[in-house]
Amino acid sequence: MHASRICLALCLASLALPLAAKQKFTWPEGRKAAVSLAYDDALDSQLDNAVPALQKHGLKGTFYIVPARESVRTRMEEWRAVARMGHELGNHSIIHPCSAHGPGREFVPPHQDLDRLSVAQMKEQVEVADVFLQALDGYTGPRTYTAPCGDRNASDGDYIKAVADRFAGIKMVGGDVVPDMHALDPAAVPAAVPTEVTGKQLIALVEQAGRKGTMVGFTFHGVGGDYLSVSKEAHEELLAFLAANRDKYWTTTFLEQMQWVRKQQEVQGNKKGR
């Protein structure tokens, strides 16, 4: 009887070990959560307001460049300087195709309508955008991607599936705080798109991620200008909080975060995507 009890205890312990290991997801230097500061569409207000704020607080962000935008053509050397500062330049396609269907999509012109483009055309756009970014910053490794408007369906299927293998991570609009790092698909990382919010509201999401031990991704557009904007004051309040709590929250490029996430998932047997 005694031997049977010992055997049963050992069996139960062996079953519990994988579960315990799965529950342990760690961030560098024991931090509570990761915070991604991303900026879409290569807007003037990002160069004018967001970059100086990041530099002031010693934080790294990720800028998703659209090569066809006027602000890229006219301020290319400034974008090169952003990369030299240590910020990430991410892929956001060449012309920013979105579905023109649905409420609020009147801004999408016919030639940028994702519903009219094929998976092959989108795959080529993404590949050419990578070449452009390499010419801009000289980086030859894997990058990250944000799907324009969070849309993934081209005229003949899901183009994200066709390009996922080339990226360390892909942001998809929708959601905010990652609920479970073990279940996270690197090719479908949720991203909040804050507009007209306060700094306190942004900080609340960071603290929520800290309680969960996961991550939160902010995808900003205009900062104190342009469109889908947040005020300079709200942005500054968030950055000041992150700088004052850098021992608790890991704020770095999305690429660096996703490389860490993939390694953790591989160790724990939860590898997805690439």
UniProtKB/TrEMBL annotation:
- Please identify the protein, giving its name as recorded: Polysaccharide deacetylase
Pfam name, any one: Polysacc_deac_1
Give the keywords, sorted. Answer: Signal
Hydrolase is among the record's keywords: no
UniProt domain NodB homology: residue ranges: 31-155
Database matches in Gene3D superfamilies: Glycoside hydrolase/deacetylase
Q: Where is the signal peptide?
A: 1-21
**Biological process, per Gene Ontology:** carbohydrate metabolic process
Q: Which InterPro entries does its entry note?
A: Glyco_hydro/deAcase_b/a-brl, NODB_dom, Polysacch_Deacetylase
SUPFAM superfamilies found in the cross-reference section: Glycoside hydrolase/deacetylase (SSF88713)
Q: Which organism is it from?
A: Pseudoxanthomonas suwonensis (strain 11-1)
Q: Which GO terms describe its molecular function?
A: hydrolase activity, acting on carbon-nitrogen (but not peptide) bonds
Q: Which domain of life is it from?
A: Bacteria
